[in-house]
């Protein structure tokens, strides 16, 4: 057996932490991310959470193989630096996380993009286990992606290969995205832009959405089921956007399987059949049909993946 690992997944809404050994989560906890205020002020809280987890398991850092962070954004996994990140955790590129890990825990440090980490988690332990050519798409606060081709995790010369699927353009006359481009999949359909998308709908004020303090996809799918026309329109627009994004990924990376994961997949019973039919109808795959799989670990794949990287 390999030694346990400390794994951290920096989500835009929650920061998840876990102690993981050989693909098993021994203990996990999460804290609010407050990602709009940056990462630096959350580091003491992450430290406290990790100390509590170790205490609960009766472990010390001497029992741990290393610490890994799965981060959004463009990540240099060699120099162990966050190079560029969207609005979430905006100060992260200025933080020396390797030094923080060394000073705080005296442990080896591993850093990787969160979607790549999630793909590794699904490939090693989940629903992508039997494939060597895989694309993962995460539907959540933003839209993430990652790719494995011929059994190799794609990184590219500047660490952006495979991970910018949420920033493929599906509407070149669309709104500006945080990334500087226009009409990205993420701008057309993701949690961060959903409230703005909802308010531009012409019947918004008559919709139950307008009375809600928080507009998220759980609400949109529920109200769409109840026949709310604004919610129905938003749902269908989003399903089309995700499907278009999925086809861009399939045409780019030629996978055997597309794994769909992330918080929005709570509505997978509607999302998967729609995307599957759209891909079957519109993707240029003369060899046959791309398999569509729901992620086995929608909440923890990135923790499992980054833990695997720490040990390998």
Automatic annotation (TrEMBL):
Keywords: Kinase, Transferase. Gene3D superfamilies: 3.30.420.40. InterPro entries: ATPase_NBD, ROK. GO terms for molecular function: kinase activity. It holds the Pfam family ROK. Belongs to the ROK (NagC/XylR) family. This is Glucokinase. The lineage of its organism: Bacteria, Pseudomonadati, Bacteroidota, Flavobacteriia, Flavobacteriales.
